Fold:
Amino acid sequence: MKIRHNVKRGNYGFLDSKDISFFESVIGKRNLLQEDLDGYNVDFLRSVCGNSQLVLKPGSVKEVSAILKYCNERKLAVCPQGGNTGLVGGSVPICDEIILSLQRINRIISIDQITGITVCESGCILENLDNKTREVGLVVPVDLGAKSSCYIGGNVSTNAGGLRVLRYGNLHGSVLGVEAVLASGQIIDLMSDFKKDNTGYHLKHLFIGSEGTLGVITKISLLCPPKSDAVHLAFLGLSSFDHVLRTFINAKRYLGEILSSCEMIDAGSLEASVSHFKLNAPIQGYPFYMLIESSGSNASHDLEKFNEFLENGMKNGEILDGTVTAELSKIQDIWKLRELVPVALVNNGYCFKYDISLPLREFYNIVNVMQDRVGDLAKCVCGYGHLGDSNLHLNISCEKFTEELYNRIEPFVFEYTCKVKGSISAEHGIGFLKRNYLKYSKSPESIKMMRSLKKFLDPNGILNPYKVLN
Ligand code: FAD
Ligand code: 2HG
Ligand code: ZN
Structure:
């Protein structure tokens, strides 16, 4: 593991035995951990490793409130943690911050079949929540490869994107309200049962995507759309990125309102998941692949549209080969090829990950530019991601982290992204790893306003210090 930081500890209090006694009195001895904390201190990428000596697992919003009130008075720094699947080092401490795990605050409170409004606590595992909503014919509008480990509270705190932003938009739209606890311990009720509620400032947005720096989310009201009765998934092989773009235009045109996902993976990405997880790809040997999904209500109508789209693409020579299926097990196998790419690239070494929004015309150029820049220093430079949302995942994997490779990549990749007017973080957030690069995507005025908001809501800076703002 490479610990890539040398951060000066902030002027925070140091834990003592009186603090431990207080926390025990609030949450009970067995919900406080002081040993074997590696799984909480180290992030998924194994690129950031904190030195926390204490994990607290409150079981209610009142307990979160009592903990934060105390920490604020004692100036003890706190790192809120969900499933610890974040990819920017935001979910683990940097120094000795107390880890506040939301794991036990995990009740599903209500699912309204008529409106689709689901109210739950922030520690619900995304996949469990989705399974529950499916029982009444609804789906959670966010879906991503880490669904079996990440929490809905972590998703909301990072404004996670995933595979169906194209269809459902991002969580700023689907989250109707939140309950959060401020650094002072004050519980703020911003819950709402309505899509339409223009009564003053929409404060909930401050907590969506602020990565635990402004408050701890404890409850969420989420608008869940109906589950689609007819789902089709195509896996297509293409010979150039130009053909990928043309196929995207046609997918929008032919599939229209039933288009629910449009993902791209390149040959290196497919090779990583196929070889690492010993998967079978329906087709191989192309430089680019697309996963195009439709979700509608009438299987035969949808298939007709799909066939027309494919016939047209093949006739024009844009789609070289492919397969379409409506069979659930086959759909799941195809999605695995895509969802396991990020995991495959992390195993057996180190992976530099960049999550950028780019104008579609420029989308893939950076992969070629990077290949030239890093040469033999990397094992694989590849690009995949949410083409339908202009969001590229550039991954550069290597045997182990080296300063030489790191310096070839950063800050170049951020400068490049800024030059083409992209965003240096499309969906994973800024966290710790990207905090020095925020300036490439935000103006000095907006960074100043972010600092003022932080100061106003968390004057002692105890919530997730060293993250987002440096
Ligand atoms: P954590 O990792 O624990 O925390 C993330 C951040 O949120 C931290 O800053 C933490 O302090 C804060 N936080 C967590 N819970 C709370 C809370 N209740 N209140 C306040 N702050 C909180 N992301 C995407 O956007 N799209 C993807 O497609 C995607 N795919 C992924 C695939 C894999 C295999 C992996 C490992 C990650 C992926 N991610 C993706 C990253 C993504 O950010 C997370 O998976 C997820 O949203 C984080 O949830 P979590 O519960 O693990 O949060
Ligand atoms: C995905 O879309 C995730 O699979 C992870 O956002 C991307 O690891 C990555 O680079
Ligand atoms: Zn992604």
User: Anything to note?
Assistant: The longest strand covers residues 230-238. The pocket of flavin-adenine dinucleotide (ligand 1) is lined by residues 44, 79-87, 90-91, 102, 122, 144-146, 150-151, 153-155, 157-158, 160-162, 211-212, 216-217, 342-343, 427-428, 431, 464 (CB under 6 Å). DSSP finds 17 helices and 16 strands in the chain.
